[in-house]
């Protein structure tokens, strides 16, 4: 587990601690999806790797597959929650310094027209 989790990282905790299991909507061996605590749209989820990756700026070509799986899990959760129009969703990363949690997380929002203008 060395280099895998970061002590004191809230997303490491949510993704890996049993007592945080209730927050998790969907999981695979390398990813979890949970609700954003401060939703900016009727559907707002975060998909994170269980491993502590600090930022999208540190991703390399070998991790394209991981990012694709993150997007797939996000769309899966939306579908499971009744979203049918996959052209009316928003998926994306915020880039440092415009981030508040230093653990890679894909924002998954729907519908597009109801995303808060403050987001
Ligand atoms: P960003 O860093 O991409 O700008 O935003 C981080 C996102 O994580 C925010 O949308 C914020 O509401 C969400 N967030 C921050 N802390 C927590 C937390 O403890 N639990 C959950 N579920 N979401 C969080
Ligand atoms: Zn972390």
From TrEMBL:
Location of the HIT domain: 10-119
Coiled-coil region: none
Motif Histidine triad motif positions after renumbering to this chain: 103-107
GO molecular function, one term: catalytic activity
Organism superkingdom: Eukaryota
Protein name, per record: Histidine triad nucleotide-binding protein 3-like
Originating species: Gouania willdenowi
Parent-record interval covered: 42 to 160 of 198
């Amino acid at each position: 587990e060395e280099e895998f989790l970061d002590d004191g990282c809230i997303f490491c905790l949510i993704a890996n601690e049993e007592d945080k299991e209730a927050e998790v909507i969907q999981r695979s061996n390398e990813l979890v999806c949970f609700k954003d605590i401060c939703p900016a749209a009727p559907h707002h989820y975060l998909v994170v790797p269980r491993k502590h990756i600090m930022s999208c700026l540190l991703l390399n070509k070998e991790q394209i597959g991981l990012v694709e799986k993150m997007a797939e899990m996000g769309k899966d959760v939306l579908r499971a929650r009744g979203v049918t129009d996959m052209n009316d969703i928003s998926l994306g990363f915020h880039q440092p310094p415009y981030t508040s949690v230093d653990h890679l997380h894909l924002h998954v929002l729907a519908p597009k027209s109801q995303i808060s203008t403050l987001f």
